[in-house]
Design brief:
The complex is a heterodimer of chains A (115) and B (114). Chain A has 115 residues and is mainly beta. Chain A is 0% helix and 50% strand. Chain A is built from no helices and eleven strands. Chain A has strands at 5-7, 10-13, 19-24, 31-37, 43-50, 53-57, 65-68, 75-79, 88-95, 105-106, 110-114. In chain A, the strands form two sheets. In chain A, strands 2, 4, 5, 6, 9, 10 and 11 form a seven-stranded mixed beta sheet that branches. A four-stranded antiparallel beta sheet of chain A has the order 1-3-8-7, with no helix packed on it. In chain A, a hairpin with a 5-residue loop joins β4 (31-37) and β5. Chain B is globular and about 45 Å long. The chains are: A mainly beta (115), B mainly beta (114). The A-B interface holds A 4, 31, 33, 35, 41-45, 48, 50, 55-56, 58, 91, 93, 98-109 and B 32, 34, 36, 41-46, 49, 51, 90, 92, 94, 96, 99-107.
């Protein structure tokens, strides 16, 4: 069964460092997303991406965050200068169509720890 | 704005007994509703969805959920729980009038005892 894959599974970084989290969505999917889950809290929407541009972003997704689909297969989330409060599990997801037609398929997450 | 509430942090049932996980939502328009399950150290796995049509939706692993518009609820049910159903369950909503994002509830931890 096709799946969304994410790397790394766990990354530890120092505050102020740049981090790139990578995702390979399901190959025929057209919509891509990043969500995050701070330990013990809700899963929160960060950004959605369609047709090579951001289609929607939350207030969490400030100038420190960026997304890219550099080569038609990978979908990356970059945090330019990490803060302690960026420590969370980051989930990539993809869907074939928009949410009016189907569901999101999630990866297993990348745990980011900022020290 | 759209929101989801899962009023129970934890639900405990004995194996073989019925399982219900509660979810209520708030949207300005008509909702799309989803249930996801998360096993330890795993991602979110889709269980079922309500888009339109029958209010009773059947999904994976014997789960079902009933959309109740008047009560703005979408409770997840399973007639006979298994120990392997022990996991974290998330309800999520998308407002059709809003964008393409899901809003998740806080999650309910289900513990099925042998």
């Amino acid at each position: 069964e096709p799946e969304v894959t994410q790397t790394p599974s766990h990354q530890v970084t120092q505050m102020g460092q740049e981090v790139i989290l990578r995702c390979v969505p399901i190959s025929n999917h057209l919509y891509f997303y990043w969500y995050r889950q701070i330990l013990g809290q809700k899963v929160e929407f960060l950004v959605s991406f369609y047709n090579n541009e951001i289609s929607e972003k939350s207030e969490i997704f400030d100038d420190q965050f960026s997304v890219e689909r550099p080569d038609g297969s990978n979908f990356t989330l970059k945090i330019r200068s990490t803060k302690l409060e960026d420590s969370a599990m980051y989930f990539c997801a993809s869907s074939l169509g928009g949410l009016n037609t189907g569901e999101l398929f999630f990866g297993e997450g990348s745990r980011l720890t900022v020290l | 704005a759209q929101s989801v509430a899962q009023p129970e942090d934890q639900v405990k049932v004995a194996e073989g007994n019925p399982l219900t996980v509660k979810c209520t939502y708030s949207v300005s328009g008509n909702p799309y509703l989803f249930w996801y399950v998360q096993y330890p150290n795993r991602g979110l796995q889709f269980l079922l969805k309500y888009i339109t049509g029958d209010n009773l939706v059947k999904g994976s692993y014997g789960f079902e959920a009933e959309f109740n518009k008047s009560q703005t609820s979408f409770h997840l049910k399973k007639p006979s729980a298994l120990v392997s159903d022990s996991a974290l369950y998330f309800c999520a909503v998308r407002d059709r009038a809003a964008g393409n994002k899901l809003t998740f509830g806080g999650g309910t931890r289900v513990l099925v005892k042998p």
